[in-house]
Specification:
globular; four-stranded mixed beta sheet; binds zinc ion; about 75% helix
Length: about 260
């Protein structure tokens, strides 16, 4: 358990590549594994099928370009969360890109359920906008028969749509799960209570993902392995986020006197 927590903590300690809106953008070494793996998967399942090996080098280059664009899509998604959070005075320590996507590392919990909803929805909204814009570029390039550019933007549009929808699933600590937490938080006026329920939803979802992964792996193809790893990771991060909320809340309660908290 400790080692697994250290693994999550190590994600936050990755190397800063550049800063955007004063937020350090970090790349965890596992991102490079994703880069190679994803380039291969996109080549194998997408570009090689579309172009039927007109030029293998060109197809691999196109696949790698798609993965680099995915990097910026993830960054845009996390920036959506971060910029709304910063408007609410929340400090964003870093944005980390790693094998399972991106994470904005924020220093504190959102100040209110409303802030939590707006912060959580901002990421998927950015992904939906990127998806729609990429869709338009796809139509434009296809119309003028720029096949390669068309397929680049088609992939981007689909990936960003998938990113928005997947993140909106009601499983804490993903965006949808955070929205569920905010709704319970508002109703019960208790962040710990809300986090506990949202956390259970997150663990159930991770378990379902694990089962789906096992079924896909044995009945369909290797991609089931991805769901298994993602399920295991989400389960860990749900536990980690739940514990973090408890720690933050304890600190918050001890720092602020009861009268101040009442206001
Ligand atoms: Zn998100």
């Amino acid at each position: 358990m400790k080692n697994k927590e250290n693994l999550i903590k190590s994600i936050f300690k990755s190397r800063t590549i550049f800063k955007i809106f004063k937020i350090p953008v970090n790349i965890h070494p596992s991102w490079y594994i994703l880069f190679i793996l994803f380039t291969f998967i996109i080549y194998y399942d997408y570009t090689s099928l579309i172009f039927e090996s007109k030029s293998i080098i060109k197809e691999i280059l196109l696949s790698a370009t798609i993965v680099i664009m995915v990097f910026f899509s993830l960054l845009a998604h996390e920036l959506g969360h971060s910029l709304v959070g910063m408007r609410y005075g929340i400090k964003v320590n870093s944005i980390v890109l790693f094998i399972f996507g991106g994470i904005a590392q924020i220093a504190t919990e959102p100040p209110s359920p409303k802030a939590e909803v707006l912060m959580s929805i901002a990421g998927p909204i950015v992904s939906l906008i990127v998806s729609a814009a990429s869709g338009l570029f796809y139509l434009l390039f296809s119309f003028f028969e720029f096949e390669w550019l068309g397929s680049l933007f088609f992939a981007l549009s689909s990936i960003n749509l998938g990113l928005a929808l997947f993140n909106l699933l009601p499983a804490f600590p993903m965006d949808g799960g955070r929205i569920v937490r905010a709704i319970i938080w508002k109703k019960r006026k208790n962040l710990i209570f809300a986090t506990k329920y949202a956390y259970i939803s997150g663990r159930i979802f991770s378990f379902l993902l694990l089962i789906i992964g096992i079924v896909v792996l044995f009945k369909e193809n290797y991609q089931g392995l991805w769901f298994i790893l993602l399920g295991l990771f989400l389960d860990r991060i749900a536990i980690f986020s739940y514990k973090n909320t408890l720690i933050h809340q304890k600190r918050y309660n001890s720092e602020i006197n009861p009268e101040e908290r009442m206001q």
